[in-house]
Amino acid sequence: MQAASMGLHSVVFIVPIILAAITAGAQSDSCELELPAALSNYSGLSCRPIWNNFVLRYSQNEENVLSIVLSTIYTVGWVGMGFSTDGRMVGSSAMVGWMGKTGIPHIREFYLRGKSASEIVADQGQLLSTAVAPKVLVHHAKIYLAFQLKFQAPLAQQHLLFAIGTSTPVHKHLKKHSDKISLLFDFSTGSSSTSTSHLYKLKRSHGVLAIFGWGVLLPIGAIIARYCKQWDPLWYYLHTIIQLMGFMIGLAAVVTGKLLFDELHATVYSHRGIGIFVLVLGILQVMAFFVKPDQDSKIRRYWNWYHHWGGRLALFFAAVNIVVGIQVGGGGSSWKVGYGFDLAILFIICIILEVLLWTRWSKKNIPSPAF
Asked: Could you tell me the pTM of the whole model?
């Protein structure tokens, strides 16, 4: 009975805490919550939930002074808001706030000169502050960054960067963010959209080049080499030209993928790893073309094994990586259906040609009828 009573008291004690946490979570991204009293001088602000748990409160006056209060859920680390001319990190300036390990709040302007930690320079930038000192406040498990900026003209559409890091800065050195986003925000209407059109185009180019190079041309070249040898030497020239074109386009896909990674810093280890492996196999296949032994050479059959199975391995892992890339890249149903249709067509063609090939071989092995 005593144990049951203790269990009941525990439930009675825990339930309100859970309910409070649920209520706080439900209101974490709401503009209905009032600002803490310490920020009472920031009044009359418009408010928009901007990203995840980030809430942006803002206003502009006739002197082109922009008042900002940025809030989000906070435990440790840092929170930043950047102003960019093109939606990219490099070259932008940001206001970053955090609560120090000793409990002292900090807010600083940083100039994002590059992407490495050494190129994130504190107390520099292109933002013009006002006489109102910026402020950082942690209240009810939320952090508030409040500051004012002076501009030469009223802000309308502006590229904004939002980021959060889990490591508390020491001596004003920021470690890499754990999450970020780039938005195009309209201060006149309060609307926002992801300012990543160039990233979308780069991602689309990467996918199209990879599918066309690794997933269409190279398989077609391999099909010609296996099933069209009766058209000698036409099959060889077609095979060589198509494979070279496919490799060059696939290499362009690798280059765009590298550019995309430099922009996003996405943790797609499997996609990158398989891609590097396929690229190495492709380079080895190109090198094999220049060291091809003569037809009557003793090592020709070993070269054939290497060339055939290395090519098949490259095509297999290229197909796997395209599927992985569509998945991690958030490709919609059109990408999945399109590449699925491509695989289905290639598979059907291979089945038909393989049957015809075995039929042709079987006829060659039938002895001539006796007269």
From this structure: 0.53
